[in-house]
Description:
Binding site for heme: 438
Cofactor: heme
CATH architecture: Orthogonal Bundle
Strand content: 5-15%
Region (Disordered): 1-25
Subcellular location: Mitochondrion membrane
Number of strands: 12
Shape: globular
Mean pLDDT: 88
Low-confidence stretches: 2-22
Number of helices: 18
CATH class: Mainly Alpha
Main location: mitochondrion
Strand order of the largest sheet: 1-2-3-8-5
Amino acid sequence: CSGRAGPSLQASTAPEPALSPPGRALPYEAIPRSGRSAWLNLYRFWRSDGFQRFHLLMERSFQRYGPIYRETVGTYNSVNVLLPRDAAQLFQSEGIFPRRMGLESWIAHRQLRNHKCGIFLLNGEEWRSDRLVLNKEVISPAGTRKFLPFLDAVARDFVSLMQRRISKNARRSLTIDLYGDLFRFTLEASSYALYGERLGLLEESPDAESQRFIGAVETMLRTTLPLLFVPPGLVRWANARLWREHMAAWDTIFSHADRCIQHIYQEFCLGQQRKYSGIMAELLLQAELPLDSIKANIIEFTAGGVDTTAMPLLFTLFELARNPGVQAALRQEIAEAEAQGPRELSKVLNSMPLLKGALKETLRLYPVGITVQRYPTKDVVLQNYCVPAGTLCQVGLYAMGRSPQVFTNPERYDPGRWLSQEDNSFKALAFGFGARQCIGRRLAETEMMLFLMHVLRNFRIDTVSKADIKTVFGFILMPEKPPLLTFRPLY
């Protein structure tokens, strides 16, 4: 198995290349290729809004070329695969320092401002040493149990907010585009767990400081997509305004983290009675990481934990609204779990497998990130093609989730499929896999489960339109137009 990956390689685009002799893998150059000119492909993407339709174009490419193909767009050069067994092959070849594609605009901000990078942007030994420390507070069962009450409090407050709004409506119901409220909920919940402070975003009038922070997070996410496929230096020259907005947003987010650190240190200095005050406080108290590394990682958690949680919640509520039978089954499971009496929140959540299945089903149909990336550390054979070490390989999550090759009746929203005896290995990859799976996974999963638990036990959710949601890719997968949902109190 040999060869070099690169945008200059030529390959046939025929979907059915000649088969190699038994036991011999085809060369890298034989992988079907989507387009030959990297920069022409980039131009076509810009002209046709291809970035927003990236997930649909990838799905179409798999249908055209089969379960593996190559693609070059600007500086972006990758091998894309569809099937779970290929994801398993990438897992086996990722090594002890799994590497993912970096976000150059985020890295450029850190370099220009002399900030450290966190584990989302790091690779190699520096990534591993930070990750091992962070695992204990962020993704381990013991660490998760400590911040669950914070997430539970915010979920209860969201229900109270909805009840106040409904009480002002003579029809005793509320029909709403919920995206803005879900964005504020997830930012409030994740910030409380990370920083140990409430932002007040679920109040009628959040203070100016909180408004600036939420505006900065929104701007950072909005400006990241146009910077994804083009070198930052070129963007700074071609679209200076976009670059200034991106930089200013990150500066505001870093300033917020600095203020939170100062508050935590003030509490330490005052000698107040020690109690759990969030993930950042625990990391500062343990002092196993330098201060600038703690800040860098907490900020990346903030950036990665808002829309990436809000969007799955929005899609889940929509699917439950148009699948009332599933909604009723989840409500029954929640009632049975609560009937077992007061218990730790972690035990309550663990007694609701169908609710976990609903989140998996949502992320199958609407994965936040439409791909999972890895750079294999050794040559790997995918679909009988030899892929050289160091090649950017992507598992197409959106296409996989909707492929009849992988899922029976893929168009059907069926949480029960995850509770069957069927082999689901490497089919639920929304949070990645292996040592480099999303470190915020438990934070996101428990935040979403607590939200749904409290909402479903208090409201019935309906929607007028049962039609499929059209989605666009805007750094994450999102609805082209958010659905209108109707909330009616159960009591």
